[in-house]
Amino acid sequence: MGLLTAIWLTMQIVLGRYKEKILLPSRTIFSIAIVSLTTITGTVSFAFAVNYGFFALATGLSALSTAVAAIISWFIFKERLNAIQILLISIAITLVFLIRLFV
């Protein structure tokens, strides 16, 4: 659930326009909270990096989020990565390190 959706739903409840009960299992609420915390942490970290570091490096690291997700899914869920994906992930990581060396 996005932040604007939560604000909209809260306003609807406060204004009395939404009167139905919202039933969510505690496990679902915990999962939503964990995913939200990772998103918020990533966004705050990117903002911090842009303000106090090199923009090129922060953007490069932000762009690597897809590669990190692919590596984590390979590690945790045993998803297969083909040779082209491994090559592209390696190139992306190498380029981010090169940006750090030359900027």
Provide tags for this entry.
mainly alpha, 79% helix, 0% strand, 103 residues
Structural write-up:
- The chain is an all-alpha fold and 103 residues long.
- The protein folds into two domains: 1-41, no CATH class; 53-103.
- Helix content is 79%, strand content 0%.
- The protein contains five helices and no strands.
- The longest helix is centred in the middle third of the chain and has 27 residues, at 26-52.
- The radius of gyration is 19 Å and the shape is flat.
- The mean pLDDT is 82.
SSE inventory with pairings:
Layout: H1 3-14, H2 26-52, H3 55-63, H4 65-77, H5 83-102
Helix pairs in contact: 2-3, 3-5
Residue stretches low in confidence (pLDDT < 50, at least 5 long) are none
**Structural class of the secondary elements?**
mainly alpha
Proportion of residues in extended strands:
under 5%
Secondary-structure element string: HHHHH
In DSSP terms (H or I, runs of 4 or more residues), the helix count works out at 5
**Nearest-angstrom radius of gyration?**
19 Å
Q: Tell me the distance between the termini.
A: 38 Å
Total of domains = 2
Q: How confident is the prediction overall: mean pLDDT? A: 82
Main pleated-sheet profile: none
General shape:
flat
Q: Tell me the helix content.
A: over 70%
How many DSSP E strands? 0
Question: Would you kindly provide a brief summary of this structure?
Answer:
With 103 residues, the chain is mostly helical. 79% of the residues lie in helices and 0% in strands.
